[in-house]
Amino acid sequence: MSSRKQRERQMLESIYSMIALVFILVTCIELCDAATVVDVYRLIQYDISGAQFGSRFATLNHHAGSLHLPPGVDLSRTVVIIPVRELNITLVKEFIAQRKPLGGLLFLLPQMLNFENRDPTSESKYQIHEKKLTNNVLVELERLLIYANIPYPVYFAFEDDDIDAVLADVKRNDASGQPATATTGSYKLVVSAPEPKRIASPAITNIQGWLPGLKADGDPNQLPTIAIVASYDTFGTAPALSVGSDSNGSGIVALLEIARLFSLLYSNPKTRGRYNLLFGLTSGGPYNYNGTHKWLRSFDQRLRESIDYAICLNSIGSWDNKLWIHVSKPPENALIKQIFEGFSTVAEELGIEVSLKHKKINISNPRVAWEHEQFSKLRVTAATLTGLSAPPELLERTGGLSDSRHFVNEDAIVRSIKLVAESIARHVYGYQGKNIQIFADDTSLAVNAPYIRSWLDLLSQTPRVAPFLSKNDPFVMALKKELEDHTHEVNVQHEVLDGMFTIYDSTKAKLNIYQVASVTFDLLLLLVLGSYLIILFTFLVITTRGLDDLISLFRRPPSRKVKAA
């Protein structure tokens, strides 16, 4: 009897060991299915006065497909992978305009757009040509995506060897004319992300600093003020990639360098001008320059009336040989004429062409095209210096995918800084019309190119979409500290973005790419495993208990009546 129990115990132990082994094998197979994990960046989701724009979903769990699928194929459970290098913008327009059912879109960006790629100078002529083509495609793609309401997830990722290998396999499968499904197998793209939530009370932060002028003894009058202003935040198709190297990283760099140059002059009473200089780094630029509006409203009337003029710096890092001065007051205005003549004189010395462009504003219209228009609405003379000949549409050219470090010309920024600093200095010191270089090269007052490059590199690696920047964000604190190094009475103003703009979170996630087998393969594997388990179980019972015990397992037990008899 004891030997029989021992055999039964041995048989049970063998069965448990077998089951454990099967679980281990299945687990290993499942782990080996994962092909790669990549960072992905979600298309912006936002509302304007209740109207919905951008991608409305974040979770992704569908099979991968490519543009090599034949027309008419059902793509409702397929994520179409589209390299920007191969982008067919017409096809994407059809997807969006006709609201074709898709599982999702994944756009692959060239590595040169990755802001961790820090060597923009090591480019061949082919790459430079490719940059221009890529830039044009991205501008058109962003314009399409940013104003669309898309009812499925849209993500961006950077090309690399792993994802390129996956795409090559997907293309080969799609070339057969049959999309990836549960029955055919292929790759599965999975993003586990929470439902996007509205950002409540999004903060915008303005930073200002002063360089006070030298007031003559006994002069009761307030010194006039010149304001130099630049908006520092961005808005783009993918908020986590919106670094805005030109718009408006170039303007921020220029403002900081101009503040540094004038701090050298104003630190000595003998060279301090009889103008106050006000430096303003404003937020909410893409949203009708909402931060500038609130910053100016915080000024008392006396301060506003003291502003002689304001110069706003915007996108001055990608022009070739011409800059534009946009104004709201007519060119015949005496002060506008004086400002333009001063800039034109310096521009001619630097070999730069400067043109004046007038656009009248509607005070009752909340939409403003340029930052200086917020000043003009309060009857403060102001102008915008930019490389753009025409104002962009709302939320366009505000630091999107096409605005990276690779598309910015450092020399253009240096020349812009020389133009602005020299023009303001001649105005401050009364040297208009005189060929006197205050910030001459090879002097202690020369423009510092390494300083410009270091800040441009930092800005080109820092996404700056305002609702995602907290009040004490390290970047905001870095700007404040830098302004404190060059100016006085640095003040930080915290405001809330106007309610007509609603921004949603969930901007970055991890994409898991799994290589999955077809259902046919799974069924076949299940059949093989089942047969193996039955044979193994039969063998164990026969060897430990005998054939009679095996047969008794399947024999119908006697009824209660038979037992009683």
TrEMBL record:
Q: Name one Pfam family in it.
A: Nicastrin
Q: Which GO terms describe its cellular component?
A: endoplasmic reticulum membrane
Query: What InterPro entries does the record tag this protein with?
Result: EF_Hand_1_Ca_BS, Nicalin
Native organism taxonomy? Eukaryota, Viridiplantae, Streptophyta, Embryophyta, Tracheophyta
Mark the transmembrane ranges: 523-547
What membrane topology term does the record carry? Single-pass membrane protein
Q: Which GO terms describe its biological process?
A: regulation of signal transduction
**CDD domains assigned:** M28_nicalin_like (cd03882)
User: Where does this protein come from, organism-wise?
Assistant: Populus trichocarpa (Western balsam poplar)
Keyword Membrane included in the entry's annotation:
yes
Please list the coiled coil stretches.
none
Q: What's the protein called, per UniProt?
A: Nicalin
Judging by the UniProt lineage, the source's domain of life is Eukaryota
Instruction: Name the family the entry cites.
Output: Belongs to the nicastrin family.
Keywords (alphabetical) are: Endoplasmic reticulum, Glycoprotein, Membrane, Signal, Transmembrane, Transmembrane helix
Q: Where in the cell is it found?
A: Endoplasmic reticulum membrane
Q: Say where the protein is mainly found.
A: endoplasmic reticulum
